[in-house]
Amino acid sequence: MTHLAPEAALSVLPRADGSAKYSYAGYTVTASVNGPIEAQKRDEQAYEAVVDVIVRPAAGVGGTRERHLESILQSSLSQIILITSFPRGLIQIMLQIESTPENDYVNTKLVQASLNLAIIPALLQTAVLALLSAAVPMKATATSSAVAVVLQDDGAKKMVVDPSPRDIESAQSVHALIFTSHDELLLAESEGDFTVQDWDQAYEVAYNVCCQAEAKKAGTDMMIDDDNDASGSDMRHFIRSTMESKVAADLHWKR
Amino acid sequence: METERPFVLPGDSIDPSLIPVPRQQDAQTQNSKKQAVLRLGPGLRHMAATGAIVPTVPGQLVVDGRKRSMWVESKGGRYVASVGDVVIGQVQRSAGGDLFYVNLSPYTSNAILPHLAFEGASKKTRPQLAPGALVYARVSLANRHMDPELECVSPATGKADGLGPLVGGTVFDVSLGLARRLLMARSREEGQVAVLDFLGDEGLAFETAIGRNGKVWVRSDSIKTMIAVGRALQKTDEDDLSVDDQRKMVKWLIKSMR
């Protein structure tokens, strides 16, 4: 299935140090970043900043699932933020999910129980854009992709990038991967039954979406089927062009 | 001597040809050694292991070949104190009988302003500042492991040079980028911000102080003027107005004030 191109708006919240609104593949997330600010005495760490990630669902209050997403994002983001530059500090990242492809208002109990890996790319990308908008010093930027391994009727396995809820329902396994802008793997979360070969393939597909999309456009990449090709949007290029136009507007006075 | 300003994201590699190299004659003569040193401004870090210079914030990489310095220009997020910046702070309280705790931006740890760091201050005549009072001060010590320290007096001359308590008036928040432009020696030519000149030309009488931490203090006898000046600055900041648009906005503002 194909998705519309990702969309983003930066510095949408006037009171926060930085903010971003991002929508792609049916997910819309707004993030605000505040920091570096003073950490509470009980949380502060003597040699580095605390990264505090808060995920709020589209409907209702956060539960176990949101706490799990927070911990995944927290560990990934504190790897790319220069936390040692701000000892005893706090960098607060608030992620408000606005809409998801599935309907949050029905079957909340059922949804609550399962982890939704497909939302990680949207959350991560929004957080990175908001951090860039807040000019928080970072080692690198990061991009993310989710891949579902779907068993087709003929027994062949198909890799679906940015899967829809339907794809996830029928998938054997779902993988969420995050790469830094230096092509390093930052996070790999998987769910379901899969073999090492499945994972390798999922990794390859996600790597191409996150890191090698420019090469793919040049026609050097043969990994992905034609119908999948369009769904893998070039995330790194997207972040770069979004930030570039924002910076150009901010620095209009610079001749 | 500025050339093109490439856009950079954190972690990008910088084209080595952009990094200014010391000229031969500079490196050889002893007394100009100071000039030969490359100086890194905000938004860049030097990796000791590889010797590479890596950006840490998104923005435009500015290279000044004459001053042998480079930095990343951006509108900036939250203020992080650095030595030599002039800032506007709000006194929180006096502590220990010899210093004030001063707030530079909301939710950050307080800066320290010693009672004796004012012009002509001595143990007998120390300034009396109530909580909430505003001070115009220079950052004298900034270190990531310590709270920043401020001073309202030049340590070399013992003169205030315009620093000290700000009496009356009100403070407006602007972005760090606009504060930097306003503080430029030639803010109209270099920073493309002339809104204060235009307001003055229209006959408004007011006084301003600009803090590098994104604060602008405005005082005037008329409250209307005070608000007009502050809002004009904030509007210039929010809408990224050009000099021409600033002139139009000021004209409109003056008309609507009558």
TrEMBL record, chain A:
Pfam family, one: RNase_PH
Superkingdom as given in the UniProt entry: Eukaryota
Primary localization class, coarse: nucleus
Coiled-coil zones: none
GO cellular component, one term: nuclear exosome (RNase complex)
SUPFAM superfamilies: Ribonuclease PH domain 2-like, Ribosomal protein S5 domain 2-like
Places the protein is found: Nucleus
Keywords assigned: Exosome, Nucleus, rRNA processing
CDD domains in the cross-refs: RNase_PH_RRP46
Residue stretches making up the Exoribonuclease phosphorolytic domain: 9-137
Gene3D superfamilies: GHMP Kinase, N-terminal domain (3.30.230.70)
Transmembrane segments: none
Listed GO biological process terms: nuclear mRNA surveillance; poly(A)-dependent snoRNA 3'-end processing; rRNA catabolic process; rRNA processing; U4 snRNA 3'-end processing
Molecular function via GO: RNA binding
Protein family according to the UniProt entry: Belongs to the RNase PH family.
Protein's UniProt name: Exoribonuclease phosphorolytic domain-containing protein
Organism, scientific name: Diplogelasinospora grovesii
Biological classification of the source: Eukaryota, Fungi, Dikarya, Ascomycota, Pezizomycotina
Automatic annotation (TrEMBL), chain B:
Record localization: Cytoplasm; Nucleus, Nucleolus
GO cellular component terms listed in the entry, alphabetical order: cytoplasmic exosome (RNase complex); nuclear exosome (RNase complex); nucleolus
Keyword Cytoplasm: yes
Entry keyword set: Cytoplasm, Exosome, Nucleus, RNA-binding, rRNA processing
GO molecular function, one term: RNA binding
K Homology domain boundaries: 169-222
Pfam families for this protein: KH_6, Rrp40_N, RRP40_S1
Family: Belongs to the RRP40 family.
PANTHER family per the UniProt record, alphabetical: EXOSOME COMPLEX COMPONENT RRP40, PNAS-3 RELATED
Protein name: Ribosomal RNA-processing protein 40
Native organism: Diplogelasinospora grovesii
